[in-house]
Design goal:
18% strand; BirA Bifunctional Protein, domain 2; alpha+beta; single chain; 2 domains; binds 3,4-dihydroxyphenylalanine
Length: 346
Amino acid sequence: MEQQLAKLQTNTIAAIGKTKTINDLKDLEVNILGRKGKLTEILKGVKDLTAEQKPTIGKLANEIKTTLENEFEQKAKKFKLIELEKQLLEEKIDVTEPGIKAAFGHVHPLSQVQKEVEDIFNSMGFSVMDGPEVESEYYNFESLNIPADHPARDMQDTFFIKQAPHKEHGHLVLRTHTSPVQIRTMEASGAPLRIIVPGRVFRYEATDATHDATFDQVEGLMIDKDISLSHLKGVLTEFLSRLFDYQVKIRFRPGYFPFVEPGLEVDFSCRFCAGSGCRVCKKTGWIEFMGAGMVHPNVLKAGGIDSEKYQGWAFGFGLTRLVMMRYNINDIRHLYNGDLRFIKQF
Ligand code: DAH
């Protein structure tokens, strides 16, 4: 039996040495040390030995078992190490390799022009204000001298929010213009004021090349003692001349807006023909630009400003239209549909 055991040890060690995979090793281990393994089989014969033989053989068998267990363990470790090395090689990162370049976006043309507009007005002492896009009927209409039954409401049909109306401020609507921010700023800061308000506005409107249900406006408001329309003319001449880079002329025509009195339509001299008449200005020499006027006393009152002490002017123009003019864009939808083939040109 001693010989049998010694042979088993030598053979097993040799076999362990030859295993190529961890699975082979495990199989071998079961084969030798498992419940039905070769060593176990041999040890079954111990019971037939003499009383003197038993302890020696028993001891030897245990030693062989420990030795073999050790051998198996060592080899298993080797396999694990090889596995680890393989994994390390596969997962290795070459930090010297050039990276993948991140794609840079850029500022949308609408935002580019908005920034220019803000910079020019900033330089003339105007602050840039902001207001909610979901507005109350009160701020969007009533406070701007457009009562519920006023026909001017029809000019600006809007989207209503499904929600019970507020007792004083009425329904919530998507603001139809940036003018409500006039009242909000008057309430918050009082007079004097010099502000512009760029922002998104919404109208219940069929979409075509020149109309969209969403577009951008810029509101302007200047309130102080002794402010007149000549200040408006001066500010607008400076603004448009700087934006378009030529000496612009401004023309006022009478116009109607409930929140101003008198109300004006503002045109500026055509940049393509310098006023002599061309296709762009429809032979008039003028480009229709925006609405403006002297702020109505009712509006000042709604904003908490004493109209005996202060007066001022306001204006509102379409930033979207300005961008279209600036870059000769012939369809408003290009500016809002997010088509990268268009956007990448700016
Ligand atoms: N809120 C007007 C509109 O959206 C534009 C406008 C006209 C604004 C005259 C003004 C103004 O501040 O004085 O059609």
